[in-house]
Amino acid sequence: MITAFDAAGINLLWHPTLSVETGAEVNAIIDSILRGELRLDVLCLEGSVMTGPAGTGRFHMMSGRNEPMQDVIEALAERAGKVVAVGSCAAFGGITATGGNPGGARGLAFDGDTPSGHLGAGYRATDGLPVVNIPGCPVHPDWVTETLSQLGTGALTSDHLDGVGRPHAISGKLVHHGCSRNEFYEYKASAEKLCEVGCMMEHLGCKGTQAAGDCNTRAWNGSGSCISGGYPCIACTEPGFEEPGHPFAQTPKIAGIPIGLPTDMPKAWFVALASLSKAATPRRLRENASSDRLRVFPDRYKGGRKP
What we know:
This protein has helices at residues 2-7, 24-34, 69-79, 88-92, 141-153, 168-171, 182-186, 201-204, 267-279, 283-289, and strands spanning 42-46, 49-50, 61-62, 67-68, 82-86, 105-106, 132-134, 253-254, 257-258. By secondary structure, the chain is an alpha/beta fold. It folds into 2 domains: 2-169, 3-Layer(aba) Sandwich (Rossmann fold), CATH 3.40.50; 173-294, Cytochrome-c3 hydrogenase, C-terminal domain (Cytochrome-c3 Hydrogenase, Chain A, domain 2, Irregular), CATH 4.10.480.10. The strands form 4 sheets. A 3-stranded parallel beta sheet has the order 1-5-7, sandwiched between helices. A hairpin with a 2-residue loop joins β8 (253-254) and β9. The radius of gyration is 23 Å and the shape is elongated. The termini are far apart.
């Protein structure tokens, strides 16, 4: 990541893992920014803003400053040229906002999908942009370096953000795109257990057809994704993913029809297409779908080599 930042001309002022400064040195950097002596082009926040108890923020105090972290974030945001929420917690509240949310966790600009985050719906950084949300739990590292590079060159404007502040470079694709199980999806050849290789949408809660992200075309660690690793997409890039109202690996249905249908697809069309697809499912896909490995392989062209 440091090499990617160097290539983009990004100078990292401080990061709790990547930087060597600690304690008083960190506070000195913050004070220099707040006094206007050190320019802060981009403020990045990882993790939600903890506002509890009762809005005081004292559940999360910044070491060495005796100030709630929420107050430090606000002060830095007033000085920042741009503000970026890194990960679904910083963007929307995420996992830390589940249940009764006693910590008062919320995102910088959004609380779930409601524009009532800590900085407020009308917040704009000094360069005029709203908070840029890079979603994910965890966030894909390439999304971070790509977004910061675009911000650094001025290539990312408010026109490039969707309704919840995510860059279109991320939210313009679905996790479904490039999924290694797409052939099973097309014929609705479904897995019923996590160890099986069929499509996981019908029974196992996969939300790849509804979730923003290029996870299956920009592989994690250069080789994989949740789905290729055998687990359904839980839509971690979406606001409110942490409380789906059902077990993650289970698809809720009404009259046998999944509640969460693919994005932009009317229910009647899905039912009609699913019925046709299942009727035409090749034996290879039907048998492999409920298996823990590929057991039936594609046949050679039966008429011999094509001319």
